[in-house]
Write a structure and sequence with these properties.
Strands 3-4-2-1-5-6-7 form a 7-stranded mixed sheet, with helices on both faces. The chain has a 3-stranded antiparallel sheet with strand order 8-10-9, with helices on one face. The protein is an alpha/beta fold. Helices cover about 30% and strands about 15% of the residues.
Protein backbone atom coordinates (compact mmCIF):
# COMPACT_ATOMS: atom_id res chain seq x y z
CA UNK A 1 0.00 0.00 0.00
CA UNK A 2 2.79 2.40 0.87
CA UNK A 3 4.31 1.74 -2.55
CA UNK A 4 1.01 2.48 -4.28
CA UNK A 5 0.57 5.71 -2.32
CA UNK A 6 4.10 6.75 -3.27
CA UNK A 7 3.42 6.14 -6.97
CA UNK A 8 0.14 8.08 -6.74
CA UNK A 9 1.89 10.99 -5.01
CA UNK A 10 4.57 11.13 -7.71
CA UNK A 11 1.94 11.05 -10.47
CA UNK A 12 -0.09 13.81 -8.86
CA UNK A 13 3.06 15.87 -8.42
CA UNK A 14 3.86 15.51 -12.11
CA UNK A 15 0.36 16.64 -13.05
CA UNK A 16 0.81 19.78 -10.97
CA UNK A 17 3.91 20.90 -12.91
CA UNK A 18 2.83 23.59 -15.35
CA UNK A 19 3.51 22.76 -18.98
CA UNK A 20 5.00 25.47 -21.17
CA UNK A 21 2.44 27.72 -22.78
CA UNK A 22 1.59 27.11 -26.42
CA UNK A 23 2.41 30.45 -27.97
CA UNK A 24 1.44 30.79 -31.63
CA UNK A 25 3.89 32.95 -33.62
CA UNK A 26 2.70 35.35 -36.29
CA UNK A 27 3.14 32.89 -39.17
CA UNK A 28 0.77 30.41 -37.51
CA UNK A 29 -1.78 33.15 -36.77
CA UNK A 30 -1.56 34.36 -40.38
CA UNK A 31 -2.14 30.84 -41.67
CA UNK A 32 -5.11 30.30 -39.33
CA UNK A 33 -6.67 33.47 -40.72
CA UNK A 34 -6.41 32.21 -44.28
CA UNK A 35 -3.50 34.50 -45.17
CA UNK A 36 -5.70 37.60 -45.06
CA UNK A 37 -3.71 40.58 -46.30
CA UNK A 38 -1.67 38.50 -48.74
CA UNK A 39 -4.25 36.74 -50.89
CA UNK A 40 -4.29 38.02 -54.45
CA UNK A 41 -1.08 39.99 -53.91
CA UNK A 42 2.52 39.68 -55.05
CA UNK A 43 4.60 39.07 -51.95
CA UNK A 44 8.24 39.56 -51.03
CA UNK A 45 9.68 37.83 -47.94
CA UNK A 46 12.59 38.76 -45.67
CA UNK A 47 13.45 35.72 -43.58
CA UNK A 48 16.10 33.23 -42.48
CA UNK A 49 16.08 29.71 -40.98
CA UNK A 50 14.44 30.98 -37.77
CA UNK A 51 11.28 31.80 -39.73
CA UNK A 52 9.41 28.55 -39.04
CA UNK A 53 6.21 27.34 -37.40
CA UNK A 54 6.18 24.99 -34.39
CA UNK A 55 6.49 22.00 -36.72
CA UNK A 56 9.63 23.51 -38.29
CA UNK A 57 7.97 24.31 -41.62
CA UNK A 58 9.76 27.25 -43.20
CA UNK A 59 7.78 30.45 -43.73
CA UNK A 60 9.20 30.38 -47.26
CA UNK A 61 7.49 27.07 -47.98
CA UNK A 62 4.30 27.99 -46.12
CA UNK A 63 3.80 31.15 -48.17
CA UNK A 64 4.95 29.52 -51.41
CA UNK A 65 2.28 26.84 -51.02
CA UNK A 66 -0.42 29.14 -49.61
CA UNK A 67 -3.57 29.31 -51.75
CA UNK A 68 -4.05 32.69 -53.37
CA UNK A 69 -0.63 34.01 -52.27
CA UNK A 70 1.90 34.83 -54.99
CA UNK A 71 5.33 34.71 -53.35
CA UNK A 72 7.62 36.28 -55.95
CA UNK A 73 10.93 37.12 -54.25
CA UNK A 74 13.06 36.38 -51.19
CA UNK A 75 15.40 38.80 -49.44
CA UNK A 76 18.41 37.52 -47.53
CA UNK A 77 19.83 39.36 -44.48
CA UNK A 78 23.13 38.44 -42.79
CA UNK A 79 23.63 34.62 -43.02
CA UNK A 80 21.16 34.32 -45.94
CA UNK A 81 17.57 33.08 -46.19
CA UNK A 82 18.60 29.44 -45.72
CA UNK A 83 21.42 30.19 -43.24
CA UNK A 84 24.23 29.14 -45.55
CA UNK A 85 26.46 32.21 -45.00
CA UNK A 86 28.61 32.56 -41.88
CA UNK A 87 28.76 35.62 -39.62
CA UNK A 88 30.06 38.64 -41.51
CA UNK A 89 30.19 36.86 -44.88
CA UNK A 90 28.62 38.78 -47.74
CA UNK A 91 25.43 37.28 -49.11
CA UNK A 92 25.07 37.22 -52.89
CA UNK A 93 22.00 37.40 -55.12
CA UNK A 94 20.96 33.89 -56.11
CA UNK A 95 18.03 31.59 -56.77
CA UNK A 96 16.39 29.54 -54.03
CA UNK A 97 16.92 25.87 -54.97
CA UNK A 98 13.65 24.67 -53.43
CA UNK A 99 11.24 27.23 -54.86
CA UNK A 100 13.17 28.65 -57.81
CA UNK A 101 12.47 32.17 -56.49
CA UNK A 102 15.04 34.96 -56.86
CA UNK A 103 16.92 35.74 -53.66
CA UNK A 104 18.12 39.32 -53.27
CA UNK A 105 20.97 39.98 -50.88
CA UNK A 106 20.59 42.58 -48.13
CA UNK A 107 24.04 41.88 -46.76
CA UNK A 108 26.33 42.44 -49.72
CA UNK A 109 26.49 45.29 -52.19
CA UNK A 110 23.49 46.90 -50.51
CA UNK A 111 21.76 46.59 -47.15
CA UNK A 112 18.63 48.43 -48.18
CA UNK A 113 16.53 46.92 -50.98
CA UNK A 114 16.93 48.87 -54.18
CA UNK A 115 13.80 50.15 -55.87
CA UNK A 116 14.50 47.72 -58.74
CA UNK A 117 14.45 44.77 -56.30
CA UNK A 118 11.02 45.89 -55.09
CA UNK A 119 9.50 46.21 -58.54
CA UNK A 120 6.14 44.42 -58.77
CA UNK A 121 5.88 43.65 -55.02
CA UNK A 122 2.63 44.60 -53.27
CA UNK A 123 3.46 43.45 -49.72
CA UNK A 124 6.80 42.80 -48.03
CA UNK A 125 6.65 40.22 -45.23
CA UNK A 126 9.28 40.04 -42.46
CA UNK A 127 9.66 36.89 -40.35
CA UNK A 128 12.89 36.47 -38.36
CA UNK A 129 13.39 35.48 -34.72
CA UNK A 130 14.73 38.51 -32.86
CA UNK A 131 17.07 38.43 -29.85
CA UNK A 132 16.01 41.68 -28.16
CA UNK A 133 19.36 43.50 -28.47
CA UNK A 134 20.02 46.62 -30.55
CA UNK A 135 23.32 45.52 -32.11
CA UNK A 136 21.78 42.44 -33.74
CA UNK A 137 21.70 43.25 -37.45
CA UNK A 138 18.33 41.74 -38.37
CA UNK A 139 16.36 44.60 -36.82
CA UNK A 140 18.56 47.02 -38.79
CA UNK A 141 17.61 45.12 -41.93
CA UNK A 142 13.95 45.49 -40.93
CA UNK A 143 14.35 49.25 -40.57
CA UNK A 144 16.01 49.62 -43.95
CA UNK A 145 13.36 47.43 -45.59
CA UNK A 146 10.68 49.65 -44.04
CA UNK A 147 12.42 52.75 -45.45
CA UNK A 148 12.72 51.29 -48.92
CA UNK A 149 9.10 50.14 -48.95
CA UNK A 150 7.93 53.55 -47.73
CA UNK A 151 9.64 55.17 -50.74
CA UNK A 152 7.77 52.88 -53.11
CA UNK A 153 4.43 52.75 -51.28
CA UNK A 154 4.71 49.04 -50.47
CA UNK A 155 2.99 47.66 -47.38
CA UNK A 156 5.16 45.89 -44.78
CA UNK A 157 3.77 42.95 -42.77
CA UNK A 158 5.73 41.81 -39.70
CA UNK A 159 4.98 38.32 -38.41
CA UNK A 160 5.61 38.66 -34.71
CA UNK A 161 7.72 36.36 -32.56
CA UNK A 162 8.71 36.22 -28.86
CA UNK A 163 11.45 38.38 -27.43
CA UNK A 164 13.70 35.78 -25.73
CA UNK A 165 14.72 38.38 -23.13
CA UNK A 166 11.07 38.88 -22.20
CA UNK A 167 9.11 42.09 -22.54
CA UNK A 168 10.17 43.77 -19.28
CA UNK A 169 13.97 43.99 -19.49
CA UNK A 170 15.23 47.40 -20.71
CA UNK A 171 18.89 48.38 -20.33
CA UNK A 172 21.42 50.74 -21.88
CA UNK A 173 21.44 54.27 -23.23
CA UNK A 174 20.19 55.59 -26.56
CA UNK A 175 22.42 55.79 -29.61
CA UNK A 176 23.97 59.26 -29.80
CA UNK A 177 24.46 61.42 -32.92
CA UNK A 178 27.56 60.35 -34.80
CA UNK A 179 27.31 56.72 -33.71
CA UNK A 180 24.40 55.40 -35.76
CA UNK A 181 25.40 52.36 -37.81
CA UNK A 182 24.19 48.99 -39.00
CA UNK A 183 24.71 47.70 -35.43
CA UNK A 184 23.06 50.77 -33.86
CA UNK A 185 20.37 51.67 -36.36
CA UNK A 186 17.80 53.24 -34.02
CA UNK A 187 17.61 55.64 -31.10
CA UNK A 188 16.63 52.91 -28.65
CA UNK A 189 18.27 51.32 -25.56
CA UNK A 190 20.70 48.44 -26.01
CA UNK A 191 18.11 46.02 -24.59
CA UNK A 192 14.65 47.32 -25.53
CA UNK A 193 12.04 44.94 -24.08
CA UNK A 194 9.81 44.80 -27.17
CA UNK A 195 8.86 42.11 -29.64
CA UNK A 196 10.01 42.73 -33.20
CA UNK A 197 6.44 43.69 -34.13
CA UNK A 198 6.23 46.23 -31.32
CA UNK A 199 9.67 47.53 -32.29
CA UNK A 200 8.53 47.98 -35.90
CA UNK A 201 5.52 49.99 -34.69
CA UNK A 202 7.57 52.33 -32.47
CA UNK A 203 10.19 52.83 -35.19
CA UNK A 204 7.51 53.65 -37.72
CA UNK A 205 5.38 55.96 -35.60
CA UNK A 206 8.08 57.77 -33.60
CA UNK A 207 10.22 58.68 -36.59
CA UNK A 208 13.15 56.56 -35.40
CA UNK A 209 13.75 55.15 -38.87
CA UNK A 210 16.33 57.72 -39.94
CA UNK A 211 18.84 55.56 -41.78
CA UNK A 212 22.30 54.44 -40.71
CA UNK A 213 23.60 57.96 -40.10
CA UNK A 214 20.61 58.87 -37.96
CA UNK A 215 20.11 62.19 -39.74
CA UNK A 216 17.99 61.35 -42.79
CA UNK A 217 14.32 62.21 -42.95
CA UNK A 218 12.22 59.54 -41.18
CA UNK A 219 10.02 57.60 -43.57
CA UNK A 220 6.84 55.86 -42.46
CA UNK A 221 5.55 52.83 -44.32
CA UNK A 222 2.12 51.26 -44.29
CA UNK A 223 2.72 48.71 -41.53
CA UNK A 224 0.71 45.69 -40.40
CA UNK A 225 1.87 43.51 -37.50
CA UNK A 226 0.38 40.02 -37.22
CA UNK A 227 0.56 39.46 -33.45
CA UNK A 228 1.24 36.23 -31.63
CA UNK A 229 -1.38 34.45 -29.60
CA UNK A 230 -0.66 33.44 -26.01
CA UNK A 231 2.48 35.50 -25.40
CA UNK A 232 2.85 37.65 -22.27
CA UNK A 233 5.54 40.16 -21.33
CA UNK A 234 6.87 38.11 -18.43
CA UNK A 235 7.66 35.16 -20.69
CA UNK A 236 11.12 34.09 -21.64
CA UNK A 237 11.57 31.68 -24.51
CA UNK A 238 11.40 28.50 -22.43
CA UNK A 239 7.88 29.54 -21.39
CA UNK A 240 6.54 29.64 -24.97
CA UNK A 241 6.55 25.95 -25.89
CA UNK A 242 8.17 26.85 -29.21
CA UNK A 243 11.31 25.22 -30.63
CA UNK A 244 14.36 27.49 -30.77
CA UNK A 245 15.94 27.72 -34.21
CA UNK A 246 19.24 29.55 -34.14
CA UNK A 247 18.87 32.85 -36.04
CA UNK A 248 22.66 33.02 -36.43
CA UNK A 249 25.57 30.63 -35.77
CA UNK A 250 26.58 32.05 -32.38
CA UNK A 251 23.05 32.11 -30.94
CA UNK A 252 22.49 28.32 -30.87
CA UNK A 253 20.17 28.31 -27.84
CA UNK A 254 17.52 30.62 -26.44
CA UNK A 255 19.84 31.23 -23.47
CA UNK A 256 22.47 32.47 -25.94
CA UNK A 257 20.19 35.42 -26.68
CA UNK A 258 20.39 36.37 -22.99
CA UNK A 259 24.15 35.90 -22.94
CA UNK A 260 24.70 37.97 -26.09
CA UNK A 261 24.09 41.41 -24.47
CA UNK A 262 25.84 40.18 -21.33
CA UNK A 263 29.20 39.67 -23.03
CA UNK A 264 29.09 40.90 -26.63
CA UNK A 265 30.26 44.45 -25.91
CA UNK A 266 33.34 43.12 -24.13
CA UNK A 267 33.95 40.77 -27.03
CA UNK A 268 34.54 43.72 -29.34
CA UNK A 269 37.67 44.63 -27.33
CA UNK A 270 39.39 41.33 -28.16
CA UNK A 271 41.37 40.87 -24.96
CA UNK A 272 39.08 38.28 -23.35
CA UNK A 273 37.58 35.22 -24.97
CA UNK A 274 33.81 35.21 -24.38
CA UNK A 275 33.13 31.62 -25.38
CA UNK A 276 32.76 32.32 -29.10
CA UNK A 277 34.77 29.60 -30.84
CA UNK A 278 33.90 27.20 -28.02
CA UNK A 279 30.65 25.49 -27.02
CA UNK A 280 29.54 28.37 -24.76
CA UNK A 281 29.20 31.49 -26.94
CA UNK A 282 28.87 34.71 -24.90
CA UNK A 283 28.86 32.66 -21.68
CA UNK A 284 32.46 32.92 -20.46
CA UNK A 285 35.29 35.40 -19.91
CA UNK A 286 38.75 33.87 -20.15
CA UNK A 287 42.37 34.31 -21.25
CA UNK A 288 45.64 32.39 -21.06
CA UNK A 289 47.06 34.82 -18.50
CA UNK A 290 44.12 34.85 -16.05
CA UNK A 291 44.22 33.10 -12.67
CA UNK A 292 40.68 31.72 -12.67
CA UNK A 293 40.47 31.31 -8.90
CA UNK A 294 41.52 34.89 -8.23
CA UNK A 295 39.07 36.25 -10.80
CA UNK A 296 36.25 34.20 -9.27
CA UNK A 297 37.06 35.48 -5.78
CA UNK A 298 37.18 39.08 -6.97
CA UNK A 299 33.80 38.82 -8.73
CA UNK A 300 32.21 37.10 -5.74
CA UNK A 301 33.40 39.97 -3.54
CA UNK A 302 31.13 42.34 -5.49
CA UNK A 303 27.97 40.45 -4.40
CA UNK A 304 26.24 41.24 -7.68
CA UNK A 305 22.46 40.70 -7.59
CA UNK A 306 21.08 37.83 -9.63
CA UNK A 307 24.32 36.48 -11.10
CA UNK A 308 26.68 33.69 -10.00
CA UNK A 309 30.13 32.78 -11.31
CA UNK A 310 32.16 29.58 -11.50
CA UNK A 311 35.75 28.83 -12.43
CA UNK A 312 36.26 27.42 -15.92
CA UNK A 313 39.15 26.21 -18.10
CA UNK A 314 38.75 25.33 -21.78
CA UNK A 315 40.35 25.24 -25.23
CA UNK A 316 38.41 27.00 -28.03
CA UNK A 317 38.08 24.96 -31.20
CA UNK A 318 38.11 27.95 -33.57
CA UNK A 319 39.13 31.60 -33.68
CA UNK A 320 42.31 33.33 -32.56
CA UNK A 321 42.52 31.29 -29.34
CA UNK A 322 41.92 27.91 -30.96
CA UNK A 323 43.81 25.14 -29.16
CA UNK A 324 45.00 27.39 -26.34
CA UNK A 325 44.11 26.60 -22.73
CA UNK A 326 42.14 29.54 -21.35
CA UNK A 327 41.25 30.25 -17.73
CA UNK A 328 38.42 32.37 -16.40
CA UNK A 329 34.79 32.33 -15.33
CA UNK A 330 31.43 31.19 -16.59
CA UNK A 331 28.36 33.05 -15.32
CA UNK A 332 24.76 32.05 -14.63
CA UNK A 333 21.70 34.17 -13.80
CA UNK A 334 20.18 33.00 -10.53
CA UNK A 335 17.60 35.82 -10.53
CA UNK A 336 17.11 37.17 -14.03
CA UNK A 337 14.76 39.97 -12.97
CA UNK A 338 17.22 41.26 -10.35
CA UNK A 339 20.27 41.15 -12.63
CA UNK A 340 21.37 43.99 -14.89
CA UNK A 341 22.58 41.70 -17.64
CA UNK A 342 24.44 44.24 -19.78
CA UNK A 343 26.62 45.22 -16.82
CA UNK A 344 27.87 41.66 -16.18
CA UNK A 345 30.65 42.14 -18.72
CA UNK A 346 31.67 45.49 -17.25
CA UNK A 347 31.99 44.04 -13.75
CA UNK A 348 34.18 41.29 -15.21
CA UNK A 349 36.32 43.95 -16.94
CA UNK A 350 36.51 45.84 -13.64
CA UNK A 351 37.68 42.71 -11.81
CA UNK A 352 40.26 41.93 -14.51
CA UNK A 353 41.43 45.55 -14.32
CA UNK A 354 41.95 45.29 -10.57
CA UNK A 355 43.88 42.04 -10.87
CA UNK A 356 45.81 42.89 -14.06
CA UNK A 357 46.13 46.68 -14.40
CA UNK A 358 48.71 46.23 -17.16
CA UNK A 359 46.06 44.53 -19.33
CA UNK A 360 43.95 47.66 -19.83
CA UNK A 361 42.17 47.05 -23.17
CA UNK A 362 41.57 50.76 -23.74
CA UNK A 363 45.18 51.78 -24.27
CA UNK A 364 45.75 52.90 -27.82
CA UNK A 365 44.31 55.18 -30.47
CA UNK A 366 40.58 55.90 -30.36
CA UNK A 367 40.20 54.51 -33.90
CA UNK A 368 41.00 51.06 -32.51
CA UNK A 369 37.67 51.08 -30.71
CA UNK A 370 35.39 52.06 -33.58
CA UNK A 371 33.26 48.91 -33.36
CA UNK A 372 33.05 49.15 -29.57
CA UNK A 373 31.74 52.71 -29.98
CA UNK A 374 29.22 51.55 -32.57
CA UNK A 375 27.74 48.76 -30.50
CA UNK A 376 27.64 50.97 -27.40
CA UNK A 377 26.08 53.75 -29.47
CA UNK A 378 28.50 56.25 -27.95
CA UNK A 379 32.17 56.82 -27.12
CA UNK A 380 31.26 57.98 -23.61
CA UNK A 381 31.36 54.44 -22.21
CA UNK A 382 34.94 53.89 -23.36
CA UNK A 383 36.14 57.32 -22.29
CA UNK A 384 34.58 57.14 -18.83
CA UNK A 385 35.29 53.47 -18.11
CA UNK A 386 38.89 53.51 -19.33
CA UNK A 387 40.01 56.01 -16.68
CA UNK A 388 39.57 53.70 -13.68
CA UNK A 389 37.83 50.64 -15.18
CA UNK A 390 35.01 50.92 -12.65
CA UNK A 391 31.34 50.34 -13.39
CA UNK A 392 30.23 53.22 -11.18
CA UNK A 393 31.80 55.64 -13.68
CA UNK A 394 29.40 54.62 -16.49
CA UNK A 395 26.33 53.57 -14.50
CA UNK A 396 24.46 56.88 -14.61
CA UNK A 397 25.02 57.34 -18.34
CA UNK A 398 24.18 53.73 -19.20
CA UNK A 399 20.83 53.90 -17.37
CA UNK A 400 19.80 57.50 -18.13
CA UNK A 401 17.32 56.70 -20.94
CA UNK A 402 15.73 53.54 -19.56
CA UNK A 403 12.71 55.04 -17.81
CA UNK A 404 11.93 57.42 -20.68
CA UNK A 405 11.94 54.54 -23.14
CA UNK A 406 9.80 52.35 -20.92
CA UNK A 407 7.20 55.13 -20.75
CA UNK A 408 7.33 55.69 -24.50
CA UNK A 409 7.19 52.02 -25.45
CA UNK A 410 4.16 51.22 -23.31
CA UNK A 411 2.01 53.00 -25.89
CA UNK A 412 3.08 50.40 -28.46
CA UNK A 413 2.58 47.25 -26.42
CA UNK A 414 0.62 44.52 -28.18
CA UNK A 415 0.76 42.21 -25.16
CA UNK A 416 0.29 42.47 -21.41
Amino acid sequence: MKGNRLILTVLLGCLCVAAPAQVRPGIEVLESRGFIGLRGKRVGLVTNPSGVDRNLRSTIDILFDAPGVDLVALFGPEHGVRGDAYAGDHVTDSKDPRTGLPVYSLYGATREPTQAMLEGIDVMVYDIQDVGTRSYTFISTLGLVMRACAKKGIEVMVLDRPNPLGGLKVEGSYVEPGFFSFVSQFKIPYVYGLTVGELAKIINEEGLNCGQRGNEEPLRCKLLVVPMQGWHRWMRYADTGLPWILPSPNIPYAQSAVNYPSAGLCGELGYLNIGVGYTLPFETFAAEWIDAGKLLDKLNSYHLPGVAFREIHYKPISGGSAGKLLHGVQYHYTDYEAATITLTQFYVMQAVGELYPDRNPFKGAASKYEMFHKVCGTDYVRIAFSKRQRVEDILEHWSKDVEDFKTLSMGYYLYE
